[in-house]
Amino acid sequence: MRTDGVKRALAFVTSAYSSYSGCRQYRENIAAAQAEVGPGAPEVHKLRAFYNHPRFIQAYAGRVRCALKQFSDDERRMLRFVATAHSIPCSMAQTSDYERQLRETTRLVAERAGFANWDLVYQSRSGPATQPWLEPDILDHLRNLHAAGVRNVLLAPLGFLSDHVEVLYDLDTEAARVASELGLKMIRAATVGTHPEFVSMIRELIEERIHPDAPRLAIGDFGANHDVCLADCCPAPQRAGKSPVLEVPCASRHS
Description:
The protein is an alpha/beta fold. Helix content is 39%, strand content 12%.
């Protein structure tokens, strides 16, 4: 880019939500690349988080409504809507708006798809078992739903944008296997992928940064996310032994 004479660029980070690994770490990577390039490296401005952009919500609600067609009328009367997202360490969740934003996205999508009740659960955790991460895990949640008498589940990976390996393996393989063993009918909604509403949203995010007076579209309770991240936004989590926050368990709440 420097060689080609590029002075300024916009970065679209493919994470709708705010956290260290979903925002600040990308900005740190960009800064490190700029430092490596040295003088003349282009400015890079990150587009804002878009968890509550109306086109993002509409795109995912459309995917959910499409999946809903695979249930009969009788099945819909006993259907549970479950959203999944990538789990992160509790220490990271406690220094960001990740969980709050996920809950808001889930609520907005559920409302537009016709669900009064919903669950937010997590998948793809890693790291040592002694380190608390956001819960409940999708596999445990499916078992709990079955024990509570639920037999039909519509699963929506709202924390992801494309059908990559974590969606395909954690949900279409592992979660599908558990659902089959339990006798649950589980349908997984597609990710937003190349949904026209989602693609249009990306275009609007670019246009609003090019034109400062353009409206920042957002729905729900929290308004549009900031254009420029605050200096102390989404700090890196403290390592074990340096902060008591790692000793505090956390769990997602349900609606």
